[in-house]
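hi! just following up on the protien thing from before. the input was this:
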Amino acid sequence: MWSFGCAAFELATGDMLFVPKESNGYGEDEDHLALMMELFRKNAWKGLCFSFGGARSKDYFDRHGDLKRIRRLKYW
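and the predicted 3d structure came back as:
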């Protein structure tokens, strides 16, 4: 359902829903995750299985479900 919603948005508007950027301390993948977390807010994000169920989740998330290298999120 999530993928369908993102694709529908991008098809309808012609814009990317999340445009990740690379920084000195983190890569585009981590910024993309941070952008999604900002949209969902912290508690709602932790309720979803994304942060704990992935094969590479330990590369990006700590045991509390927070991003390891991006600490300051601007929630919508």
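Residues 28-40 form the longest helix (13 residues).
The mean pLDDT is 81.
cheers
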